[in-house]
Amino acid sequence: MSDTEKQGAEHGSQHSEYSEDLDLSLLHEAHAGRLVVDPEEARVEFGTVAARLKLNKRGNKVLWPQPYDTPEDPQNWSIFKKNYLLLIITLAAITPDFNSGVGIAAIFALATQFDTSTGEINNLTSNWSIFLLGWGGLFAVMLMRRYGRLPILFWSQLISVGFLVGSSSTAVSNPSPNGLTPVSSIDFIPSSALLAGKWRNILLMALIYEGVLFGFSIGINVTFAVFLGLPLSMGGYNFKQFSIAGCYATPIIAVLIGETIGRYGNDSIANFFIKRNHGVFEAEMRLWMCYLALPLYICGFVVIGAAFQKHLTIGALIMGWGIAETAVMMTTVAIYAYANDCFPRHQGEISALINLARTLGGFAVAYFQVPWATSRGALQTFGVEAAIVAALFIMLIPLLQIKGRAFREKYSI
Questions:
Q1: Mean pLDDT of residues grouped by 10 in the chain (413 residues)?
Q2: N or C: the chain end with fewer CB closer than 10 Å?
Q3: pTM (two decimals)
Q4: DSSP one-letter string for 155-180
Q5: Is 68 strand, coil or helix?
Q6: Do 203 and 166 fall into the same domain?
Q7: Structural domain span for residue 153
Q8: What is the number of domains present in the chain?
């Protein structure tokens, strides 16, 4: 039998299993992580069923998940309505992290008031707040599954306001599960760069890598105030609160840059590999963004370490911080998108677990980062952290790309 005949037989056996009464809205869940995006390839794989597939406005991509023929389906909402909902969710998602980080501004005043060190105050406030953010996300998903999304969103924000008024540094909910769960219901996979029965291999490796990479960046964010406020004799910059607050604009700008690169870069990379893969999307295509982010991450951490140890100008410190945070955001977008493509029915759970991984990886960093940098030098501290992330990348990301499809077929539901 010729190669053409073999391919025809394979395609014939593939689309013979799809019947006319197939629920197309659930088809992307049955083949999690592998989606036929090109309409021509869809006709080859799905046969006559492909005629029922809905395409984007240009008619050059198949929409996944497939929307229902009703205006009540969130995927059929207008762009304005989608963006309006996204704005509300974004504002709600800001609250927990804001509550968690707002106490950083007071660590020097509190250290003076209670006659202790800024590191001790940081350990008792910011670190534990970060730790609780991760566990709060798991409970948020459980409650949303039981009571719905809007009640949990409302009550979590209301309770959060109460705690903010009471203590100004306590967070009671997690932004990601409250945010990503509704977003996953209103958008299509081709336009978003955004629970398995067995949590092994595929998700565990992604969680480990993202948790360590993001965790070290959390450590930087909560300890920078300490580094910048230390006197010159102790290797710090002796900055006052106003100057420290100005420096914290750096990660905000870096996150916006990283989000933009991550979103459009992910889509561009995916489109490139979809064309090479005969119009078929594979979830592992998302991971190529990690290759672009890793050199930036290493560069940023090394520059931060050198800036602190050699006491370089504040410009060098800000550049290193910004580069590192941009790389973190690029990687985070890729990991989130990859995990959600692999487990399309469980975006809330995926978000909660990734958030738990990053908070568990980050809350403890502040305990050892400042003492380590003080005793051994900041260049060694941040250099070793970057080396750990690079080692995890080498061990995990290529393996996921090579074995990812086999893992998905075995473990995804």
A1: 42 50 65 78 78 78 79 81 83 72 70 76 71 75 80 78 60 40 42 40 82 86 80 79 84 87 85 88 90 95 91 90 92 88 79 82 78 85 94 93 81 59
A2: N
A3: 0.78
A4: HHHHHHHHHHHHHSS---S-HHHHHH
A5: coil
A6: no
A7: 72-187
A8: 3
